[in-house]
Amino acid sequence: MRKIIADYHIHSNYSPDSNSTIEEILETAREKRIEHIIITDHYELADSHFNVIDIETYRKEMEKYSLPVGVELGWDGIKELNIDTTKFDYVLLAHHYVEEPITQESYKNYLLRLLDIVKRFDSYHALAHLDFPRRYHPQREEFSKELYDIITEILKIVISNGKMLEVNVSPIKLYGEPNPSIDILKLYKSLGGRNITIGSDAHKLEDIGKGIEKGIEILSELGYNYILVLDTEWREVKIK
Ligand SMILES: [Zn+2]
Ligand SMILES: [Zn+2]
């Protein structure tokens, strides 16, 4: 079995929507030969149900297993930002609020809120699953090219602030592309973006590492040569 470089988006039972223990995750990652993992549990500022991490306990747990301390920080851009993100080694900034029904119009509103968020908030490492609402569109319709001006603005801010873009491979099993889509990854590259992390968004043990190899293949075909991993510092790892 080939090695998998990294899975930097995994949920444990510190998230209300996962039952996996940290030990089980580590065991699964060993079995699947995943070299670098980060557990990124939900800390959703606008939803108390998804905001149950006691940060000190969580940090101690991750440190016990010599894992970087990761979090998927969900923000709607409205609720007060009362979290000290310096407590984490890897902050995945996520925007989860999607208007229904899911149409190009709700995609647009999602992007406008996301643009506002990245303009106002800078204390994160990677921007999670950029075209996230596509997962919930009945036909998984891609984001219209008319929305690419807004996407360009978002990506330019990510790049100029020195952030990373997450390639979230979980929708590959749904419609063959990651979040963000192949076209958006092309755009990121054309704007000079090169910093990429990759993650499965696994909420179950069986999904850990799933789709990462396909995601790496897509990146490689687009001309990306590296993804980033965190040891004591962030470093590039060659993907081909
Ligand atoms: Zn998410
Ligand atoms: Zn997630």
SSE map:
Elements: E1 4-10, H1 22-31, E2 34-44, H2 55-64, E3 70-74, E4 90-94, H3 104-120, E5 126-127, H4 148-160, E6 164-168, H5 172-175, H6 182-190, E7 196-199, H7 212-221, E8 226-230, E9 234-238
Parallel strand pairs: 1-2, 2-3, 3-4, 4-5, 5-6, 6-7
Antiparallel strand pairs: 8-9
The structure holds zinc ion (2 copies).
Describe the structure.
Pathway: Amino-acid biosynthesis; L-histidine biosynthesis; L-histidine from 5-phospho-alpha-D-ribose 1-diphosphate: step 8/9. One of its GO terms (molecular function) is histidinol-phosphatase activity. Belongs to the PHP hydrolase family. HisK subfamily. This is Histidinol-phosphatase. It comes from Fervidobacterium nodosum (strain ATCC 35602 / DSM 5306 / Rt17-B1). This protein is 30% helix and 20% strand. A seven-stranded parallel beta sheet has the order 1-2-3-4-5-6-7, covered by helices on one side. A two-stranded antiparallel ribbon has the order 8-9. It has a single domain, classed as Metal-dependent hydrolases (TIM Barrel, Alpha-Beta Barrel). The protein is globular, with a radius of gyration of 17 Å. 42% of the residues are buried. The chain starts with a strand and ends with a strand. The chain has seven helices and nine strands; from the N terminus they run βαβαββαβαβααβαββ. The longest helix has 17 residues. The protein is α/β, with parallel strands linked by helices and 240 residues long. α1 links the parallel β1 and β2. α3 runs parallel beside α4. The site of one zinc ion (ZN) has 4 residues, from loops.
